[in-house]
Design a protein that fits this description.
Strand content: 15-25%
Helix content: 25-40%
Shape: globular
InterPro entries: 2EXR
Strand order of the largest sheet: 2-1-5-6-7-12-9-8
Distance between the termini: 40 Å
Pfam families: 2EXR
Mean pLDDT: 84
Number of helices: 10
Protein name: 2EXR domain-containing protein
Number of domains: 1
Number of strands: 12
Length: 354
């Protein structure tokens, strides 16, 4: 049972201007919106293709920003008017059939959560890997996510490794090119295969879910407290990406804040989340190899797969791929959005020169 939030019975007696300011302050931007993705088989004439189907998270479990805005709009007429003014320019819609959810396609982040299964996943996402498997219908995905400029994927220790057959971003085979991915939860080439469906993409985020051990959770809590100890106007905090959900937020994970106080040494020393290194290495491969890889060595202009269809070329130009921004995020529950206090807070601010 969730704790009941305190009421404010005197709110209706406040001047209308103050009420509008309170409702406007409750609208935090930019938002993060969660979209569930599952693989579907498509029978097109004589070819068996596959693609992705998107759906919303069930309302009780969904922490997307659009859910929070809808709940706020139902509070009263003044709240509804404030939400309508704030979202007037939101012309982009999430790819849902049964639900109309408008977002800010330029600033909001769309988190695509792939369904997990014990069965082998269907097909491959990268154009080169489609030469040896059934065709992935990229156009279908592009039409549904055409407005997305900022995309996020989740990296969790609970996910299967990249060489397992039920991994959503699995390596095609354990050849020397992929042997480095054995301990990773994603094959970077397959990640690029998905990102290649989004021609307007500007930024890519990987949401890191650390292991559920006491040490890892302590380090994550330390990082969150370090972040919220910094003043909101500090240059360090202003340069970090932050996206707001209906409960909590997602903040950028950066090594510059991965420090904790050591009582014995009377100083700060760095710490590392277990999966931070592998994810950073995966992103580095994604940036330096897969994003910048040219199709010419592997794909001829009229290359065809073993199934007879022509494999499409990369949708993004090399210049567009070079400009893509890649960052890490971690989730922050609402109850943990606070920093260090007292002497510890002073030490943290002095150490980070905030």
């Amino acid at each position: 049972m969730q704790p009941q939030r305190p009421g404010f019975p005197q709110f209706v007696r406040l001047p209308s201007e103050i009420q509008d300011m309170i409702f406007a302050e409750a609208i935090q931007r930019p938002n993060i919106h969660i979209v569930k993705a599952c693989r579907v088989l498509i029978h097109d004439n004589y070819n068996a293709n596959w693609s992705l189907s998107f759906s919303p998270v069930p309302k009780r479990q969904d922490k997307s920003g659009y859910r929070w805005l809808a709940d706020l709009a139902r509070v009263c007429l003044r709240a509804r008017a404030t939400v309508l003014r704030a979202t007037r320019s939101h012309q982009n819609k999430l790819p849902f059939k049964s639900l109309s959810a408008r977002i800010d396609g330029n600033e909001d982040l769309v988190l695509v959560e792939f369904a997990t299964s014990r069965s082998p996943t269907l097909g491959h996402l990268h154009p080169l890997d489609q030469l040896h498997a059934c065709r992935f219908d990229e156009d279908r995905v592009r039409r549904q996510l055409d407005m997305v400029k900022k995309i996020a994927l989740k990296y969790s220790w609970r996910h299967p490794t990249a060489i397992e057959r039920n991994c959503n971003f699995r390596c095609r085979n354990p050849n020397p090119f992929h042997v480095l991915h054995n301990g990773w939860r994603m094959c970077p080439r397959e990640v690029f295969g998905f990102l290649n469906c989004l021609p307007k993409l500007h930024e890519v985020y990987i949401i890191l879910e650390p292991q559920n051990s006491r040490d890892q959770q302590r380090m994550l809590s330390t990082y969150i407290r370090n972040f919220f100890t910094l003043p909101p106007t500090s240059p360090t905090r202003l340069n970090f990406a932050v996206f707001h959900a209906s409960e909590g937020c997602y903040i950028e994970l950066h090594p510059s804040l991965c420090y904790e106080w050591c009582q014995d040494l009377q100083n700060f020393h760095p710490f590392f989340l277990d999966d931070h290194g592998p994810v950073s290495a995966m992103l580095d491969v994604l940036r330096t190899k897969d994003f910048l890889a040219d199709t010419t060595p592997g794909l001829q202009p009229n290359a065809q797969s073993a199934f007879g269809f022509r494999v499409p070329p990369y949708r993004m130009s090399r210049a567009e791929r070079e400009r893509l921004v890649c960052k890490l995020l971690v989730a922050v529950p609402e109850a943990e959005k606070h920093g260090w206090e007292g002497e510890m807070g002073r030490r943290v601010r002095a150490f980070f020169r905030a």
